[in-house]
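In these records, each integer encodes one residue's backbone shape. Here is one protein:

___
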Amino acid sequence: MGPSWGLLMFTAALGVTAAARCPAPCVCDNLRAHVLCLNGSLLAIPDTIPELTKKLDLRGNSFMVIPAGAFLATPYLTHLDLQRCKVERLEEGAFRGLGRLVYLNLASNGIALLYQESLDGLSSLQQLILEGNRIEEIQPGAFGHLGSLTVLDLRANALVYLPDMVFQGLQVLRWLRLSHNALHVLGSEAFAALPALRRLSLDHNELQALPGEALARLDGATRLDLGHNPITYVAEEALAMASLRHLFLDHASLQDVAPDAFARSPQLRVLDLRENQLQGLPPLAGAGGLARVSLDGNPLLCSCLLRPFHKWLARARVQAEGACAAPPALRGRSLDSLKPPEMRCGRLRPPPSPTTPPEQPRAAGSRPCPRACVCSPDFHHGSCENRHLREIPQDFPGNTRLLDLRRNPFSTVPPDAFPGLKELVSLHLQSCSIRVLQPGALRGLESLVYLYLTNNHLSTLAAAAFEGAPHLAYLDLDHNAFTRVPAGAFRLLPNLISLHLQHNAIEELAEGDLVGARGLRWLYLAGNAIRHIAPAALAPTKMLEKLQLEGNHLSEVPTAALRGLPALSELKLSRNPIKHMGHSVFLPVASSLQHLYLDNMGLERISPHAFTGLGPKIRSLYLQSNKMSNIPDMSNFTGLEILSLQDVPFHCDCQLLPLRRWINKLNLRVGATCGSPAEARGLKVKLSTTFLACPGWGRGEAGETNPNKTKAASKPSKKKRSGKSPARGF
């Protein structure tokens, strides 16, 4: 049968609309109702996108903020891709009107906080991808309008804490991905509202114990990933998940597992305990349905102490993978090859079993809510936002976890400002005209993890202001009046992970400024006036992973200051006036660096040896919008996933031929164009004819597109292209 009349009318309407309104520099596919505006310089969502568009791809632009009602003109969208758009904020109501949207990708942006109405209007959304942002906190209710969501991807963010009921409203969610965060606190009701969840990924976090109380709410989950967490012990009946079949606890720090640890998970079939510190296991009598246990990479002591476990394996017909590490006579022997008489005891003693830490009593929350405020007993959430209060109210319920005091003119935070709030985890004091945080202001907030002081008038801080808040991990001081980093202010914060000092007026990073911040992982200093970083300024932060310095006044790469940062994986130097880049400038961090931002600097020359030491670990390199005409050899950058070379005036002569050959082999869109000579200006490097006269042209060009031929004439046969990855253009 032919296409329906409705479809023909839709296509015809789209064709007319798209032809008339397709915004530059976008490409509109009328037949498929797709619009692509890739890797451009758009600063706002185009308002001339055809109304009937179904799929909109805006990857690689620079929106910063998605304002309220940004897509009201395109109500038929089903797929929206906003990856790598430098988005930092989603205004409340940003996606209103997109009731048909089923797929939203916001990966690799700079979103730090999800508010309650940030995702309002997405009633049909099925997949939400927020991977690779810097989300530190999710407010309860943020996902309340996403009743159709089946996959939620929050990997590689900066989450430390999940409050109770944070995922309320996700009634059909099947897979929740929380890997690669810094989670170490989970509310007991964090997963209480996920009746359809089947898979939970919590690997690569900071959980020090199995969060059994929170996981017990997941009656239907069949797979749980907890690998790469510093969990040392699994206690009796620690896991009560009625449907769990696959449990991954690999690459943790396990030293012991209780015999009845999995007795309340009767469906468990596969238990992965690879790469731990286990010298043995007791018979896991409670796990009656277990079929396979993986113990590879553990220092198994195959003495008589292992006989009960070995006997249980045979009796329960459980397949075990693993090999003996000791005694020497049995080293390397697989568990299934052992005979009981071989497992002897000499003078060997078992390692001590860690004890289960006692549970801490929880404070009762019986006090009423202060006047002019709203308290939610279900969420343990108090709010006095924008109530024109001049003094911080008191007498909140003692079990309050999140307190929102934004937009009140407090001007100062006095000592003991928050009495009785021992369970408070998140405190919001943004836009409160605060000039002074007095010593002892946070005294008693022993559970505080997040403190937001953005958009105030702070110019200095004393360490005593943080007295009594030793677990503070996220401190946001963006948009204040600091002219220098408050030296020594962080010495009472041993658990500080993330420090935001963006958009202040800091001119220098001096030695001693970060004393005490020994656990710091993410340092955000964008949008200041930093001209100099002392060689020892970053020395206290040996665990630093992200350093963001974009939009400052640096005139050279701070190579000396990068020494002693063995974990640094991301460095942003964008929008600094660095004109020349010398030899080996990234050598101190070459063994760990994965993401390097060197765009929009006016860079004129890069030394041939500037990237010495860098290689396969580099995953993304941003060099767009600079002024150099050539770049160093990067043929050993074999792990690249993103390479951006747009708006660089390459001189397309024979000296550029090696670069042309290299990027032609990449399966990446890199955006390289010629700036000279005149006959090649504006052409993609791949299509320039200036290389035809180069010595050696033709060697290595076999199978490549000849720039002089038409697309039809140069199209290789399927046989010739077999087994090769086609270049996607650059």
Summary: The longest strand covers residues 673-676. The longest helix spans residues 5-21. The helical segments are 5-21, 212-215, 307-316, 657-665, 711-714, 718-721. The two ends are 41 Å apart (CA to CA).
